[in-house]
Amino acid sequence: MSETSPLLLAFESSCDDTSVAIVDANYRVLCNLISSQPEHTEFGGVLPELASRLHMKNILYLTQRALRETGLAPQDFSALAVSVNPGLIGSLIVGLSFAKSLAWSWQKPLITVNHMLAHIFANFLEHPDIQAPFLALVVSGGHTELVLFHDLTHFEILGKTLDDAAGETFDKTAKLLGLGYPGGPAMDALSTQGDPGFFAFPRGLKRKGDLNFSYSGLKTAVLEYLSRQGAEYIAAHKADIAASIQQAIIDPLIAKTCACAKQNQIKSILLAGGVAANSALRTQLAAQAASIQARVYHPSLSLCVDNAAMVAAAAIPKLLAGAFATLDVNASSAKGTRIL
Ligand code: KG4
Ligand code: ZN
């Protein structure tokens, strides 16, 4: 690892985590500080205005701490990187405005990054040797996408959800089961004690060859199922119901990802986004992929959450290509992996 590898200072503020990281161009993380916002828990979801204010409170403090902990100074950085979409617009603007002011006052180039691409590139922080072509399964609170990368900068979206995202489905069905917010981690934990074959909830868009996803039918089916059962029955079988819902969410993800990998002769599959933390998805996808001689990569749990090291990782190809943003660049809340 070269000591002289260019250094990036990166910022992430697209939702309710403020993060500042320092990463070199070999994907080596020197620091990755995250300040999450438990203040939203009592509201059962993220309050955008509150999130923006907390980002404003945290971002300067985290940057000062990152510089202090690494002993680095402004002149040590080759560029600054920041996520600019998708996300909560107010939250994104805080990170972007902060990065722009530093870029201007330190006279450094600015690199803008798509937050979903950053989730995919989180995999390179622990596996810098991953080679293209590879297939990425992006599963988060707002996205469900199958993205085929021909190389690090050329990619195409081969499948996506037509309605709810996988994470959103975890959250909404967990809420119906009374598991609180965000529901994904609670469903994951409870499902380990349940039988995934207890009840056969519907799997969306089962048609062979269709790489898109649909979860609105499942959500309705869960609602109808729960309204047909008595409270006592639900309480007695909560883990079985949770495991059955989880299996209905992850089955199409696994089947379509492996079908797509096989069709395109892909040997590396990268899991990305908050739902990449799901233990059943990780295990079952790895087993299924092995049967088509493909390997599954996923970030460690700490890198599945929103963090600035992944923003830096996604900025590296742009740094090497000299693809810098001008200071009039804007943030955008528009969904998708493609938009930059
Ligand atoms: O990528 P992310 O942090 O935020 C977005 O950009 O949306 O993903 C958050 C989503 C939430 O829906 C949360 O319930 C889900 O990821 N999630 C999980 C798990 N951990 C987080 N879903 C299933 N199993 C988990 N272990
Ligand atoms: Zn995210």
Characteristic terms for this protein:
single chain; alpha/beta; Nucleotidyltransferase, domain 5; 2 domains; five-stranded mixed β-sheet; 10 strands; binds 5'-O-[(R)-(carboxyoxy)(hydroxy)phosphoryl]adenosine; binds zinc ion
Structural notes for this entry:
The structure is a single chain. The protein has two domains: 7-122 and 303-321, 2-Layer Sandwich (Nucleotidyltransferase, domain 5); 131-298, Nucleotidyltransferase, domain 5 (2-Layer Sandwich), CATH 3.30.420. The mean pLDDT is 94. It contains eleven helices and ten strands. Helix 8 packs parallel to helix 9 (279-290). The two termini are 30 Å apart. The protein has 340 residues and is of the alpha/beta class. It has helices spanning 48-70, 89-106, 115-126, 166-176, 183-191, 216-228, 231-236, 238-263, 279-290, 301-304, 308-321, and strands at 7-12, 17-24, 29-36, 79-85, 110-114, 134-139, 144-149, 155-160, 268-272, 295-297. The chain has a five-stranded mixed β-sheet, with helices on both faces. Strands 8-7-6-9-10 form a five-stranded mixed β-sheet, sandwiched between helices. The structure holds 5'-O-[(R)-(carboxyoxy)(hydroxy)phosphoryl]adenosine (KG4) and zinc ion. Residues 115, 119, 140, 306 line the site of zinc ion.
Main sheet attributes: strand count, strand direction, barrel closure: 5 strands, mixed
Apparent shape: globular
How many E strands? 10
Unique bound compounds: 5'-O-[(R)-(carboxyoxy)(hydroxy)phosphoryl]adenosine, zinc ion
> Measured on Cα atoms, how large is the radius of gyration?
20 Å
Mean pLDDT: 94
Distance between the termini: 30 Å
Share of β-strand residues = 15-25%
Structural class: alpha/beta
**What is the helix content?**
40-55%
The sequence of SSEs as H and E is: EEEHEHEHEEEHHHHHEHEHH
The CATH first-level class of the largest domain comes to Alpha Beta
Q: Strand sequence of the main sheet, in spatial order? A: 3-2-1-4-5
